[in-house]
Amino acid sequence: MRKLLVVGTVAFDAIETPFGKTDKILGGAATFIGLAASKYNVKPAIVSVVGEDFPPAYLELLTRKSVNIEGLEVVEGGKTFFWSGKYHHDLNKRDTLITELNVLADFKPRVPQEFKNSDVVMLGNLHPAIQMQVLDQLESRPKLVVLDTMNYWMEHTWDALIDVIGKVDVITINDEEARQLSGEYSLVKAARKISAMGPEYVLIKKGENGALLFHDKRIFFAPALPLEDIFDPTGAGDTFAGGFTGYLTDTENISFENLKNAVIHGANLASFCVERFGTERLQDLTPLEIETRLQEFKDLTQFDFEIQ
After folding, report:
1. Is the confidence at residue 302, as pLDDT, over 90?
2. What's the predicted TM-score (pTM) here?
3. How far are the Cα atoms of 15, 40, 148, 162 from residue 96, in angstroms, in the given order?
């Protein structure tokens, strides 16, 4: 099985949406990415940190789902990263209520020996210095390095972020972040400018409006599937990244045509994630459900006509 290395947060989330509210539940970018990637024939490994308060049941869940946690450090006496947020009726907007870095503040990533030659590396949304530390520990150049980042790092760690961007093959950000990073309003111009920083592919996520993949002068658009029930968008972007990288690791094909397929696979898994709070939906997701919804994506976008 091909190896996928994931660096990111493993955390507690407390979420409020117009449809309900939770106490502390399992969250974090690496958690969503790892669980999503585990739906493919790959060996995903998480590099992250938690505190002594992290329940053994959550560790057992990750192991049971075939996610390697050898690189998940448990700090004795420490507290796990905690985020609390409230979503409005427009689920694209949210207010952060609480952010407690806790053990994440002093996190030094440690890549397990078995995964220092991983086929694909997914750098989840973290401080660019941590992302770079992971790359520095690798013994060989992965076939594909994917980076996720956000506006906070653009505002506070610009130089370190630009250094990391120069070392990756794919960058995945939302449309607002693409405009901030590039200084361009047009997403076509923004993608071209960002690609000049290093990445061969620029993947711009637009939430419920789908995603755009840019490569050279080629563009691919993937819609988001219209859903009956949306409870919690937390983790949808990370689930997308897990499906995207999981599929690419499994298929061992990093051509533009296959990246288009990977975008659909990412969007497919993300559509399940939002149907319940936290990671709950990913935990019980079956191969048949995944395949059935992939067919729905195909039916949504498939058409045929003759150009005169």
Report:
1. no
2. 0.95
3. 10, 33, 19, 26
pLDDT at 303: 77
Cα separation, 63 vs 157, in Å, equals 34
CB 265 within 8 A of CB 247: yes
Q: At which residue do the structure tokens 């840019």 appear?
A: 214
User: Rounded to an integer, what distance in angstroms lies between the CA atom of residue 110 and that of residue 73?
Assistant: 8
Residues in the chain: 308
Give the integer Cα–Cα distance in Å for 272 and 228: 11
Q: Are 161 and 130 in contact (CB under 8 A)?
A: no
User: Which positions ≥6 away from 279 have C-beta within 8 Å?
Assistant: 25, 26, 27, 31, 32, 35, 235, 273
Q: How many whole angstroms separate alpha carbon 281 and alpha carbon 273? A: 6
Tokens matching residue 128: 């660019």
Longest CA–CA separation in the chain, Å: 70
Give the whole-angstrom CA distance, residue 124 versus residue 221.
23
How far is the CA of 254 from the CAs of 5, 107, 130, in angstroms? 16, 31, 25
Percent of the chain with pLDDT over 90: 87
Closest-CA residue to 48 (of 28, 72, 12, 76): 72
pLDDT tens column, 215-248: 999 999 998 888 877 888 899 999 999 999 999 9
* Residues 6+ positions from 81 with CB-CB distance below 8 Å: 9, 10, 11, 12, 28, 49, 50, 100, 101, 102, 103, 104
Give the model confidence (pLDDT) of 251-289 as tens digits.
999 999 999 999 999 999 999 999 999 999 999 999 999
Q: What is the DSSP letter of 187?
A: H
Pairing status of strand 25-27 against strand 11-17:
antiparallel
Q: What percent of the chain has pLDDT over 70?
A: 100
